[in-house]
Design brief:
There is one protein chain. By secondary structure, the chain is mainly alpha-helical. The protein is built from nine helices and no strands. It folds into two domains: about 55 residues, Homeodomain-like (Arc Repressor Mutant, subunit A, Orthogonal Bundle), CATH 1.10.10; about 110 residues, no CATH class. The termini are far apart.
Length: about 210
């Protein structure tokens, strides 16, 4: 029996009997992971280091997350809400602006900047990870954006054929790279350039040759 009351002993195998997981233990493990990430970087995060800092048995950590990559991924991008609500009556500019600022802000967190470079390598090496980075954002958001863009195109407010997944991928890619390469820039500074490109395009009002 682990300190949080769970039965079982195999690393990475959820307990099948015993008391429910203790949310306080979950919180301590997550807080410990975030603290190590921010203070010492991704390389310093180990299951043993997290367990020691959280004051739990290392088997408790393994029972929740089977590997370091799963742990960091789950702590940084917990997910849980599979819906994305577009404000009623919002226009294209408002929706795109909200997406850009929200995603750029999410990836600009100190813990995200510390963990993302290591996680990007892990995603390619470990196909068993609990979802790609995009899985925390793209499916639910893209479905809503696709429907919104189709309606906007029917009203003559957007170009027909715009793809929600491509839009979200573009924002996420920019957010990840800019968070790593330009950490000193504010969210507003980085968002402004991407918004100009997305809303106005590369050509703008330049007439064709």
């Amino acid at each position: 029996m682990d300190p949080d009351g769970e039965a079982g002993s195999e690393q990475g195998t959820p307990a099948r009997t015993g008391r429910p997981r203790d949310p306080e233990v979950d919180r301590r493990v997550r807080d410990a992971t975030l603290a190590i990430l921010v203070e010492d970087g991704y390389a310093a995060v180990t299951m043993e280091a997290v367990a020691k800092r959280a004051d739990v048995a290392h088997t408790t950590v393994y029972r929740r997350w089977p590997s370091k990559a799963h742990l960091v991924h789950g702590v940084l991008f917990p997910g849980g809400d599979d819906s994305y609500a577009i404000p009623s009556g919002a226009g294209v500019e408002e929706v795109v602006t909200g997406l850009v600022v929200g995603i750029v802000e999410n990836f600009s967190r100190p813990e995200a900047r510390a963990g993302l470079p290591g996680l990007m390598t892990e995603y390619r090496a470990d196909g068993s990870l609990d979802g790609r980075l995009a899985d925390r954002f793209e499916p639910a958001v893209a479905r809503e954006i696709d429907a919104f863009l189709a309606d906007a195109a029917a009203r003559g407010e957007a170009r027909p054929g715009l793809d929600g997944a491509t839009l979200v991928d573009t924002i996420m890619g920019f957010a990840v790279v800019s968070a790593i390469l330009h950490p000193d820039q504010s969210v507003d500074e980085r968002s402004r350039g991407l918004l100009d490109l997305l809303l106005n395009g590369a050509l703008g009002d330049v007439p064709p040759p």
